[in-house]
Amino acid sequence: MKKKIIGLCAILLAVSGCGKIPTLDNGEEAVITFDNDHMISVNEFYNTLKETYGLDTMFVLADTYILETEFDDYKDTARETADSTVDSYIESAGGEDEFLTYLMQYNYQSIDAYRDLMYLSILQNHAIEEYAKLQITDEEIEEYYNDVAIGDMEVSHILITPDVDDDATDDETEEAEAEAEATVEEIIARLDEAKDNGEDIEEVFASLVEEYSEDESTIDDGGALGRINYGTLGDRYDELVSAAAELKVGEYSTEVITTELGYHVILKTNEYDKESLEDLQEEIRDTLSEDYITDNSSSIGFYALQHYRNEYGMDIVDDEVAKQYSDYVQNAVAAIQNAELEE
Which CATH architecture has domain 151-273? Predict the structure, then answer.
């Protein structure tokens, strides 16, 4: 073992190009030397870095340790996500050299450094999500279950999107939206007529899907969205789900339903009993925690990370960095309080 260590030291010295690190008169090792024998010591270098980047460096080192320990089962996912994201950036930039040139504009000295920062950011976001879940009480979950949660439904829809270009004027946009709404009302009128004539509404609806719908993914299946509930299709469909919940099986919407995707006419074809509170509680917790993050967007990042730092008993023993951290906490709390007063 000793021979291996000596060999390694020899290699390192050969790579560095010197056998001895220069020292100042006071015995401190040098980091930088000049032709006139002036030297910058390790301590001077360290103290300057500490004063300039000490707090940021502390957060990187401390949060990486804390969050990797706390979320050990998630760190591989975080690393894979970071690597995949950075690799896609490299490809978009045209290669590693081009991407590094871009990064250096923002003081990143290597792609690996950027990967590590991305990795830590993903861990921090995960910590925020988990912290938000801790803020949700059993009482809030039960209240949501009783007042909001519903059973799954099967729904078909017809999507009409306003014909609006990116460079359309306000008047053109308004006109296109009015035309789309008029088309929806025309579809509803045809469904009303079919109902009065005793026709099979599902068959009529399917034919109207083929004639009108702009959702290419559901046209061949009569507009069927499948078995849905809040969150199944993402937040963009929440208005549609709410409208479907008000319908009985076999009923269609008689008012214009608006989502981020456009305007809809829907037909409710089936519904299921609501699952038990026990079965839904984690799903409800996730939903409520997402709302909590949205409602506390200006403060949750600070409080979440402080929570885990305190849980791990983080204690800054260096006086300069401790002062920077104290100032940071005071300023962050003041900013959060001011933001809350302005809301």
Answer: Roll (3.10)
